Amino acid sequence: MLLDKYEQEGLFFNVNFKATASEAGVATYRGELVLELGDIGDAEGRRKPPKALVYQAVLLAKDDKLIMMAGTLDTLDQLPLFIDTFKADFAADMNALMYVVNITKPMIVELEGIKFYLIPLRGGLTWNEMIEEFGLEKSDFKGQSAADKVVTANGEFKTYKPRYETLSLEQAYDFTADIKREVHGAV
What we know:
This protein is an alpha/beta fold. It has one domain. About 20% of the residues lie in helices and about 35% in strands. The protein has an 8-stranded mixed sheet. Strand 1 and strand 2 (about 25-35) form a beta hairpin. It is globular, with a radius of gyration of 16 Å.
C-alpha cells in the first residue's frame, strides 16, 4: 500500500497513527510528513531530523493514490516541494487543503491539475481547523475509528466550495509576509 511505502522510505515523522479504514483498500495517516530528509548523521546511516515537513498531515489513500491530504506548511515555498515529492501519487480528483503560516489571505492555487485550498494559520492544529472549516461537529464522528474519521472528513471535503480567489502560484506569492508560527509551550 502507498502509506506503507512512505513509511519504509522514512517519510513519516512523529506518527499520530497509520491505520486502515473500514472501506477496503483505504488507508489513513496523521502525523508529520517529510518533505526533505535530514542529512546522514553518523557512520551507521542514521539520519538527522528532517529539513522540511508538512506539519500535522492528514492523508487518505485508496488503491495506491492519495485521494485527500491536509497539513500545515511554514511557507508557500514548500508547496512546490510537496508537489514534486508526491505528485506521482495524486489521484486525479485529490482533495488538498494546506494551511500556510506565511500567507495573508485564503486562496485557491491549481497545480498539477489539483486545486490546493490555501488558508493562513498562525497557530492551531490542522485537524481541528479543518473540521471547523468543513462545518463538522464531534457528533459527526461518533463511534468511528480514527481512520474512518478521516474518511468522514473527506466526504465533507467533496462538497467544500469556499469562495476564495483562484490565483496562480506566482500571484499567490504577492500575498506572503514574514510571518512565523505562533508557538505556545510551558512557561
